[in-house]
């Protein structure tokens, strides 16, 4: 159960960590269920099974995992024909859905859409905003951020620095002309510096 050369989902760390409002573990446990609230989560397909209902209709079961754990997603009726194409093991998927009440009044999860994470990379999370005090916006921070700048021909995220003046109770947000590489390295650096930040 260990990956010695890095987790296969590492390329989608930002999308799964900051671009989803639910984790596989939360979905599997049925926690944070709110009727009609749009839920987003995803992961890598671990296995897939084709099944048949008692009425003889086909359905599918996708077993997937993210960085928090694993869960199962059932594909019935139209969902089976629309989304069983994501059955291949190792496929990174992004699921959108919500809990709605059926005819019996029970809450059931309904799939709104399933997409490939490869197609959504850079769309779900493309900005980082760093909040600093006026004394925290110094040359050391600027130098560290420069190390994560991407080349002009490479894709990166927008960098905002929000500088807050406690004395005047005012703030200003500056947007860099340079893009930065959004990922674990930037997250780790910001945590080490004990800075407040938002990825979105």
Q: How would you describe this structure to a colleague?
A:
The chain is an alpha+beta fold and 200 residues long. 20% of the residues lie in helices and 36% in strands. The chain is built from 6 helices and 9 strands. The chain has helices at 13-18, 24-29, 77-83, 117-120, 139-146, 184-192; strands at residues 39-52, 58-65, 70-75, 92-101, 107-116, 127-133, 158-165, 170-175, 196-199. The strands form 2 sheets. Strands 3-2-1-4-5 form a 5-stranded antiparallel sheet. Strands 8-7-6-9 form a 4-stranded mixed sheet, with no helix packed on it. Helix 5 (139-146) links the parallel strand 6 and strand 7. The longest helix is centred in the C-terminal third of the chain and has 9 residues, at 184-192. The chain is elongated. The chain starts with 12 loop residues before the first helix and ends with a strand. The model has no long low-confidence stretch (mean pLDDT 92).
Q: Which helices and strands appear, and what pairs or packs with what?
A:
Elements: H1 13-18, H2 24-29, E1 39-52, E2 58-65, E3 70-75, H3 77-83, E4 92-101, E5 107-116, H4 117-120, E6 127-133, H5 139-146, E7 158-165, E8 170-175, H6 184-192, E9 196-199
Parallel strand pairs: 6-7
Antiparallel strand pairs: 1-2, 1-4, 2-3, 4-5, 6-9, 7-8
């Amino acid at each position: 159960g260990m990956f010695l050369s890095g987790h296969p989902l590492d390329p989608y760390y930002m999308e799964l960590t900051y671009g989803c409002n639910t984790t596989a573990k939360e979905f599997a446990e049925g926690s944070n269920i709110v009727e009609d609230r749009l839920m987003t989560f995803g992961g890598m397909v671990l296995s897939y099974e084709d099944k048949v209902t008692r009425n003889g209709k086909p359905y599918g079961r996708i077993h997937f995992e993210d960085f928090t754990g694993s869960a199962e997603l059932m594909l019935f009726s139209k969902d089976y024909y629309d989304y069983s194409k994501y059955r291949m093991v190792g496929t990174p998927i992004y699921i959108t859905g919500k809990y709605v009440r059926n005819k019996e009044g029970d809450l059931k999860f309904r799939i709104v859409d399933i997409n490939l994470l490869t197609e959504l990379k850079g769309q779900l999370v493309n900005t980082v905003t760093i909040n600093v005090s006026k004394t925290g916006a110094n040359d050391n921070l600027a130098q560290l951020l420069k190390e994560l700048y991407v080349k002009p021909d490479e894709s990166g995220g927008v960098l905002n620095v929000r500088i807050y003046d406690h004395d005047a109770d005012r703030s200003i947000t500056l947007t860099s002309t340079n893009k930065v590489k959004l990922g674990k390295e930037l997250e780790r650096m910001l945590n080490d510096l004990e800075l407040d930040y938002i990825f979105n």
